[in-house]
Write a sequence for this structure.
């Protein structure tokens, strides 16, 4: 059996006196899809930022594809080389074309030949159905298009684990579907994924595991059918009821 994609054990994090993650332990198998949900401020985004070393933590351990974050620069470099993050804001360079946004990292950060990077970029733009947008600038794109470019840019470095931090929350409702559709295709192709989202339809369709967090703790972790049909904790039941009412 292959090693787990992500292993988290006894993770604790404080921002000053504020205890934002409390004894979090979690595992993601290779090729699995995990959805993190819960109210705002529950620690979801902080957790995935800890996984790839964007945030430090005070207690516990995080291991990604067999490499433990041990506080060294070498471990951080290795973990980031094996992972990719898609954020709420697209973080595209406004002065570069779509194609240039995809190729700048591999060319200047990994030493990839420019022609090879451009070829891979065009393949990925086709994969996210944006082949005709390669020469445009981010300011000429819709929000949904820009987020799909951001996903393609993250895929340029072939991450073994892909993390999404509420990737549709900044989008108009009509643009959400086109981004979720790309994410679902990635999931179907076996990409290991951790997704922070309020899109519960996506969680129902795609997740192997739904993890509900509140006040920095994992309250419930189960399969989507069990979570939505019969949540075990009162807090999760309240959350599901609110989501269902919103639908």
């Amino acid at each position: 059996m292959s090693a787990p994609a992500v292993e988290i054990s006894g993770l604790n994090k404080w921002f000053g006196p504020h205890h934002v993650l409390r004894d979090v332990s979690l595992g993601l198998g290779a090729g699995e899809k995990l959805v993190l949900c819960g109210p705002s401020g529950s620690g979801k985004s902080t957790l995935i930022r800890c996984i790839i070393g964007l945030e430090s933590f005070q207690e516990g351990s995080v291991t990604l594809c067999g490499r433990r974050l041990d506080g060294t620069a070498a471990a951080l470099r290795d973990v980031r080389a094996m992972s990719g993050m898609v954020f709420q804001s697209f973080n595209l360079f406004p002065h570069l074309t779509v194609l240039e946004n995809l190729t700048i990292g591999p060319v200047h950060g990994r030493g990839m030949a420019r022609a090879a990077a451009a070829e891979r970029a065009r393949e990925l733009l086709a994969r996210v159905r944006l082949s005709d947008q390669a020469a445009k600038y981010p300011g000429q794109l819709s929000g949904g298009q820009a987020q799909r470019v951001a996903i393609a840019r993250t895929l340029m470095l072939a991450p073994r684990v892909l993390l999404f931090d509420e990737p549709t929350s900044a989008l108009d409702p009509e643009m959400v579907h086109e981004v979720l559709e790309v994410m679902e295709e990635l999931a179907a192709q076996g990409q290991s994924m951790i997704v922070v989202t309020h899109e519960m339809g996506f969680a129902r369709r795609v997740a192997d595991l739904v993890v509900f967090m509140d006040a920095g703790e994992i309250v419930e972790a189960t399969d989507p059918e069990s979570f939505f049909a019969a949540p075990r904790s009162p807090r999760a039941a309240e959350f599901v009821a609110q989501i269902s009412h919103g639908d």
